[in-house]
Amino acid sequence: EQGISIPALPPSLVDLSIGWGIYGSLPPWPESLATLAVGGLHGVPSLPSLPLSLSSLDLYKCYDFIELPELPEFLQTLEVELCYDLAGLPPLPSGLQELWYYGYMNGMTELPPALTTLYLYAWTGGMLPTLPASLQFLSLGNFDDEGIEGPWPPGLTELVVGNMDSLAALPAVYPDGLTELRLVTLPRLEAIPAQLPSALQHLNLRDLEIGEVPVLPAGLDELILQGLPHVHCLPLLPSGLDLLMIDDDELIFQSPTAVACLPNLPSNMVYWQDHNQVYPVGPWLLCTVLNSTCEFVNPVATGTVYWDQNADGTRNGGEPGYPLA
Question: CA-CA distance, 187 to 177, in Å (whole number)?
């Protein structure tokens, strides 16, 4: 099959997207090209040389790619997804700011010092390269790693770690400026660092074997807990919490072996369950001495209010109750 032939491209072209087909060849890129997206190509083992003007390169399902050309010096964003035949990446430009890589990569020895965003999924290159201090967003997933060596980059504001069957330990200290933390599907992780950063606003813990949720920082406004079968009690909820999501059978309040109540009710909070229905909050959700053995319980009074007419401390026949008390 001959494949699709693309004619010469306009010399002033700035943005180009090519995809989904069998191509015989690709034409030279215009020297003005700034963004290039290539996806679903068959029949092409690599790309033509990339212009120096290119700032963003997005490769998706490049089935026959076995190598990439030299990356332009001023490239700022590189996305490579499901290009499984690639043996690896060429040297990364020192000014690269965003790297998104989804696929099986056999090694990367060095990351650019200016990198602010890093997404690595299905890493097979052994130990992770040193994470640059400039990182602000980091997402790691589907590795065969027993532990991630620290420390985390100091400027990190968003951290996602998920789908790592062998991971049993995380670095003990989070960056002070971390505002979002998501730990998802880590079946060997039985504990997470107890000291959450004070700047944290969003916390998502899902499908973990941890036995308790750490003390929550005062500024937290979103807490999502799913699939935590060994968590029975929650710490005090911050007063400004807006959203609490407790989902999955293990954490439904009716289950006797999981979370059965809340330690307190933040004034702005909405209790959200099952993804598609919002339930109002109320005192019936609170932990009390009657329904919980958790550390934080609320006082409760039970009994019958009556008029002790002879002041003997017991209710005698004829002593009236107070029906609305």
Answer: 27
Per DSSP, 61 falls in state -
What count of other Cβ atoms lies within 10 Å of the Cβ of residue 77? 16
Full-model pTM: 0.84
Helix (H, G, I), strand (E, B) or coil at 251: helix
**Separate counts of helices (H) and strands (E) for the chain:** 0, 15
CA distances, 55 to each of 10, 31, 36, 196 (Å): 18, 12, 9, 36
For 228, residues 6+ apart whose C-beta sits below 8 A from its C-beta are 205, 206, 207, 208, 210, 213, 250, 251, 258
SS3 content of the chain, % helix, strand, coil (to 5): 0, 30, 70
Q: What span, in angstroms and rounded, lies between the C-alpha atoms of 32 and 34?
A: 6
Collapsed DSSP state (helix, strand, coil) of residue 247: strand
Is residue 283 helix, strand or coil? helix
- Judge whether 189 and 208 are in contact, CB under 8 Å: yes
In Å, how far are 59, 171, 172, 292, 300 from 142, measured between CA atoms? 20, 18, 21, 38, 47
**Residue of higher predicted confidence among 156 and 249:** 156
Q: Say what the pLDDT of residue 16 is.
A: 94
* Pair type for strands 180-186 and 243-247: unpaired
With H, G, I as helix, E, B as strand and everything else as coil, classify residue 177: coil
Tokens in use for 290? Answer: 């009657």
pLDDT at 126 over 70: no
For range 230-240, the mean pLDDT:
91
**Each residue's pLDDT tens digit, 58-104:** 999 887 787 889 999 999 999 998 887 777 788 899 999 999 988 76
Angle made by CA atoms 79, 83, 85, in degrees to the nearest 5:
140
Residue 124 pLDDT greater than 70, yes or no: no
Q: What is the mean predicted confidence (pLDDT) over 217-231?
A: 90
For the cut 80, the answer to whether the pLDDT of residue 117 exceeds it is yes
151 preceded by cis ω (within 30°)?
A: yes
